[in-house]
Amino acid sequence: MKILNSKSKNFDKLLDILLSKRKNKLKSSSVSVTKIINDVKKNGDKAVLKYERKFNKNNIIAPSVKQINNSIKSLDKKVKKAIDDAYVRIYKFHSLQKFKNISYKDRYNNKIDYKHLPLDSVAIYVPGSTASYPSSVLMSAIPAIVAKVKRIVMINPGYKGNQNPAVLYAARRCGIKEIYSIGGPSAIAAIAYGTKKIKPVNKVVGPGNSYVAAAKKYVLGDIGIDAMTGPSEILIIADKTSNPEWIASDLIGQAEHDPLAQCILISKDQKILEQTKKEIFKQLKEIPRSSIAQKSLMTNGILMYVNSDAKIIEISNKISPEHLEINVKNYRSYIPKIKNAGSVCCGTYAVMACTDYGLPGTNHILPVNGSAKYSSGLGVSEFIKKISYITLSKKGIDKLGPSVITLANYEGLQGHAQSIVKRIRRK
Predict the structure, then answer these.
(1) Distance CA 138, CA 409 (A)
(2) 8 Å CB contact between 310 and 338
(3) Most buried among 13, 82, 158, 333, using CB within 10 Å?
(4) Does 381 score more than 60 pLDDT?
(5) Is the pTM above the cut of 0.85?
(6) Which range among 22-31, 126-135, 177-186, 373-382 shows the weakest confidence by mean pLDDT?
C-alpha cells in the first residue's frame, strides 16, 4: 500500500497523482464500450447474445417464470428472511423522502403549479455473473417503488444461463416481473435503445464495474442515469482510540469488491497506521476473495499520516469518497465540516458493511470517483421529474408583459417581444 506523510513537501502533488492514476484507469474502458454499444444499436438481440456468450457463457436473454421459481425454491430461508428484513428497513427510510407539490396564485390571478411525477419506466442494473448482490436489487428498486414508477426492469447477468436465487427473490420481493439475464455495456445499450425482446426505458440506475459506468455515461442524454457509480471506495479517519483490527477488516471489506476499489486510511497516529497495515496482511489470508482485495490494496490503497484535524478534513473533502468512516473519539466535531461524501458512518460502530446491506435503511448506491462533490446517493428523487404548469390571466399578462418585452428586446429576441405585445390590452 502507498504511504504518504502530510509533512512531506510534495504531499499534495503525490496525492493528486495517485487519485488521477485511478481515474484514468476507470476512463480507459470507454473505447471498447463504444464498439459494443454501437453493435447492439445496429444488431439488437443478436449482438446482446454474442456478448453474453463471450463474457458469461450465457444463451438466455429472458429467463422463464419456471426457471425463476425453481431458482428461488433453492434459496435458504435465512437468506430470504434477511432480504425481507432489509426490504422493510430500506422501504421505511425511503418512504420518508416525501415531495410536496406547490400551487401558488399571485395578486393578478396568475397560477403556478409545480408537480412531482414518477418516471414511466426504469431499469435497475444489478451486477452478477460470478457474484451476487441481492442488496443492490433492494437499493435500486425500493426508491422507484416509493416514487410509484409503473415499469421497473431488472438487468442482471447470469452465468451459464443461471441467475442468483437471492437476486431473483429480492426482485420478486420488489414486485419486479420483467427480468433479463444480461449484463455489461451490451445490457445498458439494450435497455437504452431497445431490441425486439427488450423495450427501452427512461432511465437506468445501479452499480457496476468500470465498463458499466462507461456505458451509462455513453447513453446519458438518450436516457437518464443516476450518479456516476463504479468501483467502490472507502476513506477511514482513525485516531489512537481506534481498533486496528476493526479498521483493517473495514478496508478489506471494501477492497474485496473489485481490483479497482480504493481504500484509504488517514490518521494523526502513526502507530494506528502501522498496526492496521499488519492486520491487513494477517486478515487477507482469511477471506476467499483475498486475491481481489490484495490487488485493490496494493494498486489503489493509501495509508496517510496527517498531523492536524483541519488537514484531514481538507483531504477528505478533496477526495470526496463514496464511503467515509469517521472512526475517532470526537467524531461529532468532524461532521459539520464534512461536505463531500456519498455517505458518512459516524463513530466506532457505524460500519460501512452494515450500510452496504441496507439494514440501517440508507442507500448504498453512491457517487464515486470524486462525483460526491456535485451528486448524491440514490433516493426517491432519482425516479421523479418535476413539471411547472403556468396559467396566466389577462390582467397578469398586462402587468408582467412590459418587463418581458423590455428584456426580450434587450437580448435581441424581437419575436419573443412581439408574442407578448400581441396579447397586451390595447390602450
Answers:
(1) 53
(2) no
(3) 158
(4) yes
(5) yes
(6) 22-31
Q: What grid cell was written down for 372?
A: 460526491
Q: What is the DSSP letter of 162?
A: B
Please give the radius of gyration of the chain, using alpha carbons only, rounded to the nearest integer: 25
Instruction: Give me the residue label for grid cell 435500486.
Output: 140
Identify which of 223, 228, 271 has the alpha carbon closest to the alpha carbon of residue 247: 271
d(CA 291, CA 255) in angstroms, rounded, equals: 10
- Separation in Å, CA 314 to CA 6, 307, 335: 12, 12, 13
Region for 183 from its dihedrals, namely left if φ exceeds 0, alpha if ψ lies in -120 to 50, beta otherwise:
beta
Q: Which helix (H) or strand (E) holds 346?
A: strand 343-346
Question: Contacts for 105-109 with beta carbons within 8 Å, 24 or more apart?
Answer: 106/396, 108/393, 108/395, 108/396, 108/399, 108/400, 109/393, 109/395, 109/396
* CA 288/CA 274 separation, integer angstroms: 24
pLDDT category, 22, cuts 50, 70, 90? confident
Across 269-285, average pLDDT: 96
CA-to-CA distance for 39 and 62, rounded, in angstroms?
Answer: 20
Q: What are phi and psi of 173, to 5 degrees?
A: -60, -30
Q: Identify which of 328, 342, 351, 402 has the alpha carbon closest to the alpha carbon of residue 377.
A: 342
Q: Quickly list H helices, 178-284.
A: 184-193, 210-219, 244-255, 270-284
Residues in the chain: 427
What is the Cα–Cα distance from 52 to 415, expressed in whole angstroms? 54
pLDDT for 184 equals 94
Q: List residues with catalytic annotation.
A: 322-323
- Which among 265, 246, 62, 80 has a CA at the least distance from the CA of 154? 62
* Calpha distance 258→94 (Å, rounded): 28
C-alpha 125/C-alpha 144 separation (Å) is 13
Q: Is 317 helix (H, G, I), strand (E, B) or coil?
A: helix
Rounded distance, CA 285 to CA 275, Å?
Answer: 16
Classify residue 223 by its DSSP letter: B
Q: State the cell numbers at 61.
A: 436473454
